[in-house]
Structures are given as C-alpha cells and as structure tokens.
Amino acid sequence: MKKLSLIIILVFACNFLFSQTKSQRKYAVKSGHVEYELSGNTTGTKSFWWDNYGQKSRTEIKSTTTTKVFGMTSTDEVHNITVINGTDIYTWDLIKKTGQKSINDENIQMGNDIAKDMTEAEQKKLADDILNSLGGERLGTESFMGRTCEIIEVLGCKSWIYKGLSLKSEAKVLMIKSFENATKIEENINLPASTFEPDKSIEYQDINELQNQAYANVGMDDVGVDNDENEEKNVQVKYPFGSFERVINNFKYKNYRKTMLTSQDGQHQAMFNKLINSISIVAASVQNDDAEMAGETFAEFKHQGKTCRYGTVEGGIGSALIVDYPSYDMHIAIVAMPRISKEELLKISDMLNF
Fold it and tell me: Domains of the chain by range and CATH?
C-alpha cells in the first residue's frame, strides 16, 4: 500500500496548494501600489507594486526583527526585493548583494488545469473548503483606508482583504507578534516595465538547477522509491483489470469525477476528485499487505459477510476502509482525503460491485 499512500499525498497536496488559481488574475484591480508599516517583533516598511491583475509583482521589505530568548536579544536586518513576472521569480538581498531565481511554470499550469472548468459557485465553495480545512473563518466586513474589506482569520492570523489584497494583518503566535498596516494605496496606475525586472548587477543562483542536481545525487532508497534490486515486486492481484475497469466506470458518487484509472505494480488503481476532495480505490493482493494499512490503528469488523478494517491515514487527514475478497486473494482499499466517516465509506463499498 505504499504506492497508494504516495499517490494520495501528491494528489491531495496539488489540489490543496494550487486549486485556488482560477486564472492568472490574483486581484480584482489591474494595477497598483501599496505602502505598509510593519510593527511588533518586526518593524519597518514594505512596498508592493502589481500589474496585470497580479501576474506581475514587486515586493520590497526593509525591516528589523527583534527576538528575545531566555533573556538574550538578537536582531536581524532585512532589505530584500522579490519580483514575479509571469512564471519567473527573482529575489535579491540588497545587504548581502546575493540573489536567487526560479521558474514556477509547472505549478501555475497545474493550478489552471485543476480550476479551469469551475463555476463561480464552485470557486467559492473551494475557497470555503480550504478555509475550513485550516480551521479558519470569515468574520464579516470592515472599512479600512476607505475601502470595504472582508476579515478572515486563519492559523492565528487575521487579515483584512480588499479585492484579493491584504491591506491589514495581525498575527500572534506564541510569543511572536506581527502587525502589517497599509498607509498608502494607489489603484489602476501606470507602472514602467522596469518595475518588474531583476537588478542586473546581482548574480542569481538558479534554484531549479540546484534542485535538479540534488535529486540527481539522491539514491532511490533515499527518496523511498521502489528499487528493483533491493525490494521484491508486488504480487499481481488475481482480479481481472477488465472487471475492475467496468466496476469503476459504473461507479457514480455525488459530484466526484474520475481522474485516474490504471493497473501497475501488481495492483489496480482509480481516483475520483471533487474540488479538494479525493477518493482512491485500489485492488491489491492480500500478500502485499502493509502494516501501515493493517496495523493497530485499524479496527476490524464484519459487514455483509466480509471482513473489513477502518481507520485514519496520513496523520488523521484521511480515512480508509479495507474490504477483503478471499476468493480473489484480494482486498479493496477505499481511501478518502479529507477524512469521511466509516458509514459513508461503507456506502461507497456497497456501491462497488466487485
């Protein structure tokens, strides 16, 4: 079941991190400039410029962070600029005279592909689902700098949002306090192209190249990928893939859409998605059983004459139901991200006529 867990983690993470991007518009204002005052443990200023509804942006921060630990005080001076121009990201340190660059085209394209078919209602539902999953809430509206802002609180941070832009924020986490307040706002202004160009006097370290080199130098065992020389291959499940395919194609559950159907590494796999939710269905040989899915966290019981196990996975984020089919030396694993109830997973199992 290790491959199943890996697939779930990747799909759920991608849906969660990138499905907020409906298009290349981040803000409902085409261009502008905001000046911020920083206070709390970090004091200083922040300047933010954007164009083409946020596809291009420039952020400059000049600040001092003071930290007190066990009676000892330390300070950190920061003066850096970050420029985003489409998929290109440049960040440079004006104190150290160093810089980094990266390309984020794959993540942007993934976000657009996931959300391109969503209706406006689905976008709002997605935003609410993400907010709820983080334990956040909407606190109503309030006027700030002469503009109506929606107040959103999540993960110990309260933000005043105006047309996608945060104009004010308050964060209090443990002993760290951080406040950010806009002091000047300009909307729909003309900005020169040079605003979103990197400083040519800086030598930039390519983050993408460093990552590629790091992955090239890491062995298969280091990243947890199957190594044919060191790990036995999975036993092939006896249940025919054609039969599995027919069951999956006839499966309809709420507004979930089938996004994957394949047979590899000895097991059959299917994936259904709805916004940030996913359901995976895997048919695998019992001989490949893994303690991760069959350990103490799973409670065994009988349902309609079949042996079943139910429990949580991935640190409680998801839930799983495993149903044994002895005649095929097989079990079916149904995994939901985020977690859904045992009763709901049993309903799904009953709908799957294996």
Answer: 22-121+162-214 (2.50.20), 232-351 (3.40.1000)
